Amino acid sequence: MGINVHVYSYWGVRTEWNEAVSNRIEEVYDMKIDPADDVDILTDSMSCEYMVFGVELYDSGDSRWGEMYNSNEVDITQDKLDQMRFDYMEQFKRQYPDYYEWLAAKPWRLVNLVHYS
User: Residue ranges of the domains in the chain?
Assistant: First the structure.
């Protein structure tokens, strides 16, 4: 068994693990909705420590299968960040209405992390 390793940057929210949201993610996945209609959620399903909700700005690639990309540049302004948050939350509300208020109450930040799967 190998381990995939990615470095990510997200504009969004990193939260504690939420079992109810995890179960809803599985329900949404089982509904086989068009991926363009779902929201990006990164989950630590191995150790159930965190979840990241938001817009992926950077993915290094997987070090398991080759060299990781070591940099990128993102052209971004506060207006663009605000629009990303608004668009994401509108889409989140459609797929996860019971958890919208829970997520909406959390401040958005630039989230950078190493993710193992």
Answer: 5-111
